[in-house]
Amino acid sequence: MFQDLTFSVESGTALVVTGANGIGKSSLLRTLAGLVALTSGTIRLDGADEDKPPHEFAHYFGHQDAVKPALSVLENLGFWQSFAAPAEAESYLAQTMTPIGALDLLGIGHTAHLPTAYLSAGQKRRLSLARLLVTARPIWLMDEPTSALDKASEQQLLDLMDRHLAGGGLIVTATHTKLALARTQALHLEAQPVAASIAEDD
Asked: What is the extent of the structural domain holding 95?
């Protein structure tokens, strides 16, 4: 549970969330993604349709790859395109890619017609990333985004994140590693001190 947590992020900026293991970084992202309900407080996205909750303008890129192993790579992307219909804020300018274009860019175009179950861990991670490129949403919520990526793929991811920011998007990412992005701000989560008292019997 979070207490006294307030922050704002401007378009074109990545908010990098840090803190010890178990402090709540992933829980914060899942709350922003609408996967965990707020008990109090508000989340607001300026410039968006006020009739839609903010999480409808966000992509969530978590620890799990969120792909269906029995479907082909292209079928997975087609499913996510239909599920995550575009929800764009007024200030968001990014263009989407075709599924094949996204796969080619990420170096897995040759897997397009394979069942996803045949992909390696790194390839599944890149397929999960491709979901962000085929449907435009201004907010990327990314939990340890460089996990399971080799150095070349990690740099490519950072380039894509910078391009998303340059298009007016924003990113909230939880990470233990330094991310070399063009424009960042930091949010460090810390545990509240616990007061304890001991009563002694006479």
From this structure: 14-188
* 9, part of any domain: no
Query: Structurally, how many domains does the chain consist of?
Result: 1
CA distances, 152 to each of 29, 49, 85, 148, 158 (Å) = 26, 38, 30, 12, 10
Asked if the structure places residue 5 within a domain, the reply is no
Phi-psi label, residue 46: left if phi above 0, alpha if psi -120 to 50, beta otherwise: beta
Q: Is residue 28 part of a domain?
A: yes
More confident residue, 21 or 119: 119
Q: Is 16 helix (H, G, I), strand (E, B) or coil?
A: strand
DSSP, res 62: -
CATH number at residue 54: 3.40.50.300
d(CA 43, CA 37): 11
User: 14-18 and 170-174 as β-strands: parallel, antiparallel, unpaired?
Assistant: parallel
Overall residue count recorded for the chain in this entry:
202
pTM passes above 0.85 = yes
Label residue 141 by pLDDT band (50, 70, 90): very high
